[in-house]
User: Fold these one by one.
Assistant:
Number 1:
Amino acid sequence: MRYARVREGVFLARPNRFIAEVALEGAPTVCHVKNTGRCRELLVPGAKVWLAEADNPMRRTKFDLVAVQKGERLINMDAAAPNRAFGEFLAAGGVFERPDLVRPETVFGDSRFDFYVEAGERRAFLEVKGVTLEEDGAVLFPDAPTERGVKHLIGLTQAVGAGFEAYAVFVVQMADVRCFTPNRRTHPAFAEALERAHSAGVRVLAYDCAVTPESMEIGKPVNIVI
């Protein structure tokens, strides 16, 4: 997936979850933050960031904050990017070699999953989570409590019970990480739900990504420590 019209700036402040103040060519600019997570370790004053110009010229905020530099790492922090990149990966034969159908936003029971796939006789539901929190090469999810995430894991477990394949997919929005693990410190209930889902037959996948200021693509599988 790619962005058009990307510009470099310097992060100044985040007045609330939805907007940030960025110095763009020296001038303070208000932009939309496409990630409602805390991202405290990413959005620090003076951090180099990249903004993508919004498609709608009438929008109040002209730019979306899509990437940030953290030390040596370039991290995509657009919450919509994992689904876009993973959808391209699925369609190209990632996970399922020859999918007959890749359908986004599909309901099963009282859950809505990111993807439903048919490949030959295989039927699968997949839920995608973007990961931006990194500590000493390990990446963790979530960075804030997510009851919705727990509900998705319960729904995936129910799908397995109904005879479907089910996948919890963690798209790491950076490259070259050591491992993925659930964030027990921030949300122990999610970590426990992931353990239960895995034991019940939900398959857990994690991939890193090749990230540039203008793009993000699924990269290599990441070691998973549940």
Note: Residues 102 and 117 are 5 Å apart (CA to CA).
Number 2:
Amino acid sequence: MNLLPFGLAVAALVLTPFSLAQTAPAATPPMGWNSWNHFAGHVTDADVRSAADQLVSTGMRNAGYVYVNLDDTWQGKRDAQGILHPNDRFPDMKALADYVHSRGLKFGLYSSPGAKTCDGYEGSLGHEQQDAQTYAGWGVDFLKYDLCSFQDQMRQAKEQHPDDPRLEFRMMQAAFKKMGDALKATGRPIVYSLCQYGIDDPWKFGPGVQSEMWRTTDDISDSYARMMEIAYAQVGLAKFAGPGHWNDPDMLEVGNGGMKPSEYRVHMSLWALLAAPLLAGNDLSKMTPDDKAILMNRDVIAIDQDALGKQAERVWQQGDFSLWRKPLTGGRYAVGLVNNSWSERDIPLNLAEIGFPSGANVYDVWAGKDLGRWTGPQSLTMPGHTVQLWIFKQ
């Protein structure tokens, strides 16, 4: 039986570059690029323009990566009226946003509810409405709002009122809501991304502060062990994800050099299964063929971007093996099996035990081929730190 059509149907669901503009913000997990993982505090106007160009020339834009997000260290000083201006590395933020838009892309910025950002630049404390209007005037489409120095105020409040255990968390939620409301009041669709490291279960309060996505853990690093630690931390959060509201396990590290290609495939597969925002953080001008093949696999992206908006559940964990299952449109399922050990292992896979008692037609996503119909027990051999990613249709 030839299953290629249903496998290819996965890729057909990939959004065109401007399709997000036709719906509410973050109807599917946002995709794009962020400056921090590669450039950190040295990013410039020219770097952002170059990233926009690379998203187009590499084909990443057409694969769905539409946000170009400038992270921390762009801020300059406020003028006498309190209006925030960029520093001298960004001479004209409106012109930069216009350039990004001219490339068929969207533009994102970074701030903090505190007085300072993580790197000590100007935050938005006391200027939330003013900053929101400034961002909208520049043409910003995405705001990452990082808790950072606001934690100092939370700690001070806790010290002053030790008998109120929820005070600091109410403060944090109020601070995030203030900016969320200010962004909505501009009338411009701006994706609002909370970066508060999973503090106080943001998946529960995020929608109430006007956010479309929220960090579930502390920062990722370009390490297989840290990536897997974050992936496992997503267990139990599936019920909080869906169109317009996404759990965010942090940015992609694909292409930054700290993992093998097989490990980056595990990373990309799990983020797609988890319906995570896909924000690349590598040097787009120096991508290897493996980097491109991983970041732009249309079937993998379509799993992440599936219109049903479901996040995968971990069906079982057996020693170093974990199996994840994500419902897709059309009665299909994305199924991922990860060998987290260092060595090759054999594993029996019983379809009945993972929800397919009558068997299923199987498509191998990374290989791009039909595997026929599977029923009953299957015997698999997997090298260490690898993934098998399939589409199952009963």
Note: The first strand starts at residue 31 and ends at 34.
Number 3:
Amino acid sequence: MTDVVALAAELLAIPSTTRDEGGAVDFVARWLVARDWNVMVQEVTPGRGNVWATRKGGGVTLSTHLDTVPPYVPPKRADGRLYGRGACDAKGIAAAMMIAADALVASGEERVDLLLVVGEERGSDGARLANQLPATSRWLINGEPTESMLASGCKGAQRVIVRTRGREAHSAYAHLGESAIAPMLRLLPELDALPFPVDPVLGATTVNVGLIRGGTEANIVPGACEAEMMIRLVGDVAPVKRTLDAWADGRAELEYGSFIPAQHFHTVPGFESAPVAYTSDIPLLGNWGKPLLFGPGSIHVAHTTEEFVDEAELRASVDAYMTLVRTLLA
């Protein structure tokens, strides 16, 4: 059986930031074809697509994403760890799933599919299109770095843009204008005190103000300001929106962007479980079966230049995926 660390390192050596996954897609498809899988590449945009590999179907689909965040970081091995962009998020996971699925087939269990998608890091266009495929699986095991625990649930996400308006003027005569930044500075500190929902499993709703833009020059009273926020949801988005609408009423404009709901997942006896705060492609793959979320590595190092996965944990995940599939099909 191919060593999972070696396969993961090969995948890591292929740059595949979102919208440029073609090389990784081609590598994965060829690897599976060479092992007699029925492989379909579903074009998402020219030069990139989802890889769907099947045998008998009707069982469990193992799925994760092939794209990574930028910039590309080449692989290296040191101190029992595999480093590089995608080591844990999620090319290492893709390698573990590929080897686990192939080993299951070799042992006689052919009710396993592989779905390796593109675009997860920027809008999930791959998963959205993959949900239109004629899936037959009853279970979906999605792969994200969960520290080799089954996720009992994950928070959702709601993007929000907050805008305040002012009136430009020469800064030497600031009284002739009205700053758009000043009201934003008063608004944002109030977020911590807002009564957002709390869930007994997923915990508290959280708000991150990730971007602030305002003004044009230091010598001009700013006429516009906006802040982009990511709300991590633990339940229904409606009460969150009501709270934000009341907070902004008469003081700011709100634009609600992309939305992913919070979810609770299936767990399996014998596997440790815990909730996670990040989102995945699972809400967009509803036709692929009842979802589970599991993967080696830690989200705490994902999206960093020191991203890594422990090699022993990566190897153990192959057996873990096989055990999960067999348990679900038993």
Note: Helices lie at 4-12, 22-33, 91-106, 125-130, 181-187, 238-248, 311-329.
Number 4:
Amino acid sequence: MRTRNWLKSHSPGSFKISLNGRDAEKVFGQADFEKWGWEDGGVFNLKKGSTEIRLKDLTGWYGRVDALIFTKDTAYIPPTELAAYKKELARLTGSSTAVENIGEFDVIVVGAGVAGINAAISSARTGAKTALIQDRPMIGGNNSLELGVVVSGPANPGKPNMRESGLNQEIGRIRACIKNIFQNYSSNC
């Protein structure tokens, strides 16, 4: 498993893996390194066919997992250096590592956290040709469903007469409307 112990002093992202409903003994996310690296999970006897794989969070702080490799070759050691890792990832998945030119832009925003999303929306609304670059499966950064930390700012429960403003408020209202549509099958937004 390629993981990251993102705070070595107390390993808040500890997790286990479950295969077909059976927990492995190894606890991941507690390695002695704070960068991305490989942790050996052990040897498993899996039956032919599909296997259900689940990650079980042990701390509530979301363990970091980048890749999981199963191999019959017990001597196989995945590369740790980033360029070699990316090359191996491409080989194993059949994906390309080629850089694709997607055009020219007036503004390029890197990172789709709250600030990046707001910057990209604001830029595009002024008419600038805008690209938003993100390396995670969903946007939102720390405020995404991946991490579950909501944007609250002044709008926390202890301050009932305060609220978010600007794009954060607009995005929050759109999100609430979409949630209403899916939960209540109502388009009253």
Note: The mean pLDDT is 86.
